[in-house]
Write the structure tokens for this entry.
Amino acid sequence: MNKETAATALDENNVDTANTEVATFGTGCFWCTEAVMESLDGVKKVISGYSGGHVANPDYKAVCTGSTGHAECVEVTYDPKVVSYTDLLEAFFRSHDPTSLNRQGNDVGTQYRSVIFYHNDEQKKAAEEAKTELDKSGAYGKPIVTEISKAEKFYPAEDYHQNYFANNPDQGYCAFVIAPKLDKFRKVFKEKLRKNI
């Protein structure tokens, strides 16, 4: 593992979650979203998992069939005094294609949908405003299809999905999809990155 890749993983052991808030986002691939969110200063913990479905305790194999209704997503614990929910929304919208319905790249199905699961009225309002403003700006050239839904039960994914990019930098998808996306993201968000990145 090279130094740059190793720096993407957060030390999530014994995280002090006092005065933190939680945000939940789905961008199609939780491996990508986890790597992006973990690079932001003020983010304390990122867990890959599943939400928005109708089956209790889903596993990766079941979610991949599209039959459980869940989206691949991440639960982000963050310090709002360091990184705002608006900053996280900006990172969310910039790290995937929010105009692609139920797909990201070659991944197709409702489990790959663009979704914001809000945890309170303030998050809902901020998400709706961000989506409306981006649509008005014409930033994407096509309408944004991101779903904005009330947060439901979040199920952490299997252990091997956690810190996937940091633990598997040479795996094909990581090397050819996540690494370039993360490099691009870091250039745009350089002022908001953790100091050791």
Remarks:
- The beta strands are 21-27, 43-51, 71-78, 103-104, 107-108, 114-118, 147-150, 155-156.
